[in-house]
Amino acid sequence: PFCRKVRKELTAQNLNYRVRNVAKRGRQRPDLVALGGKMQVPYLVDPNTEAALYESDDIVAYLRSTYGSHNG
To answer: The pTM is what?
Structure first.
């Protein structure tokens, strides 16, 4: 549900994004840990600002402040 919350905001902001599958046996799971330092999702990396965030509420607040508000 936390990842869904972030995807919903990305879509509302009309932002392009890439989803990476980090399931328990997923090939990209070690990449997430190497990049962010821990196995936790959602994890957003914004290539435009080089921001990297965990926590869905923090990510949504960041997206709204950086790319505009969404009401609804």
So the answer is: 0.89
* 12: its two tokens: 């509302």
Instruction: Dihedral sign for Cα 72, 67, 20, 35, please.
Output: negative
DSSP state, residue 49: T
Q: Which amino acid is at 58?
A: D
CB 63 within 8 A of CB 10: yes
Structure tokens at 10: 């990305």
Kindly report, residue by residue over 4-49, the tens digit of the pLDDT. 999 999 999 999 999 998 988 889 999 999 999 999 999 999 999 9
CB 35 within 8 A of CB 24: no
Cα–Cα distance between 26 and 37 in angstroms, integer? Answer: 17
- The DSSP letter of residue 45 is E
According to the model, what pLDDT value does residue 26 have?
Answer: 85
